[in-house]
Design a protein that fits this description.
Blueprint: E1 4-8, H1 13-29, E2 33-39, H2 52-76, E3 82-88, H3 91-98, E4 102-108, H4 122-130, E5 135-138, E6 148-152, H5 160-173, E7 176-183, H6 198-219, E8 225-231, H7 234-242, E9 247-251, H8 265-273, E10 278-281
Parallel strand pairs: 1-2, 1-4, 2-3, 4-5, 6-7, 6-9, 7-8, 9-10
Antiparallel strand pairs: 5-10
The chain binds adenosine-5'-diphosphate and magnesium ion.
Adenosine-5'-diphosphate (ADP) binds next to helix 1, strand 2, strand 4 and helix 4.
Protein name: Nucleotide-binding universal stress UspA family protein
Domain UspA: 4-139, 149-282
InterPro entries: Rossmann-like_a/b/a_fold, Universal_stress_UspA, UspA
């Protein structure tokens, strides 16, 4: 049996979407589900707030959030083995701590806090930036099934774990896999004297993509693969593909990325702009 799937809930609509996504994935993976709700007390422990009474209210609210979440799982996926946990800690570190033995961590794109215009909440950004397991960030309002998983690939080794996760997800869902390799000309190539042979460049990029997924084609013969090689910015290409995908999978970094930053520019851009669920898989 695989490790557990961990989902963070805070009672918000995006966290409900994350919960449903996690329950469905637990059934597909035959994995147990851990529903975690973190209660942060410190914002309430300032002198202006009365102590005992409000803390009890906080505990009651947490218990209600967790009970509601467990009820959602029981009614949506009665066969999934689910446990709930309330921890007294800030949510991001609490989720990170549970990630060790998990097969994946699932969170909503937003939560109850944050500012209204934000595309991503701080917990989701933090978890996606730190956890060494696949992190799935789920958006609410997407019940439709498209039958396609999208994987963003580049010419670096860094995308291997993302590709492996994407193929596994496609196989579990009986979905197809669209491997998107978006390449761009260096800016100086637009200078007429540079003399690039565009056909040659295009052919070379197609070969990069084909080589990268050849082994997975053999391992997952049941998954229909589309090699989608485009001259475009990867964030644009992946965001566009996300409109018709059940899941978009990216690595945390690509070629040329700074190892010191938590997320590469493509994964960050896709997390912010994708229309549906995004999995970030760290190498
Ligand atoms: N207290 C919490 N306990 C567990 N998970 C949480 C908690 N707060 C947020 N999360 C998870 O993180 C997701 C994003 O929320 P968050 O980053 O806090 O957004 P916002 O900044 O909009 O509140 C939520 O949908 C939920 O999955
Ligand atoms: Mg929040």
């Amino acid at each position: 049996m695989p490790g557990e799937i961990v989902v963070g809930v805070d009672g918000s609509a995006p966290s409900r979407a994350a919960l449903e996504w996690a329950a469905d994935d637990a059934l597909r993976m035959h994995a147990p589900l851990l529903v975690l709700h973190a209660v942060e007390r410190w914002p309430y422990q300032i002198a202006k707030f009365p102590s005992e009474g409000s803390i009890d209210a906080l505990t009651r609210a947490a218990q209600r959030i967790l009970a509601d979440a467990l009820a959602v799982v029981h009614s949506r996926q009665p066969d999934v083995e689910v446990t709930g946990e309330i921890v007294e800690a800030p949510p991001a570190p609490a989720l990170r701590e549970r990630a060790g033995g998990a097969v994946e961590i699932v969170v909503g794109s937003r939560g109850l806090g944050g500012f209204s215009g934000a595309l991503l909440g701080s917990v989701s950004v933090h978890v996606a930036g730190h956890v060494h397991r696949p992190v799935v960030v789920v958006r609410p309002g997407r019940e439709r099934v498209f039958g396609e998983v999208v994987a963003g690939i580049d010419d670096s080794e860094e995308c291997e774990p993302a590709l492996a996760y994407a193929f596994e997800q496609a196989a579990l869902r009986g979905a197809g896999l669209r491997a998107i390799y978006a390449w761009q000309l260096p800016v100086h190539a637009y200078a007429p004297e540079a003399g690039y042979d565009l056909d040659e460049i295009r052919a070379a990029h197609h070969k990069v993509a084909a080589d990268r997924i050849a082994a997975y084609r053999d391992r997952y013969p049941q998954v229909d693969v589309v090699e989608d090689v485009r001259c475009a910015h990867p964030v644009d290409a992946l965001t566009q593909a996300s409109e018709r995908a059940d899941l978009v999978v990216v690595g945390s970094h690509g070629r040329g990325g700074l190892g010191s930053v938590l997320l590469g520019s493509v994964s960050r851009g896709v997390l912010h702009h994708a229309h549906g669920a995004v999995a970030v898989v760290r190498a």
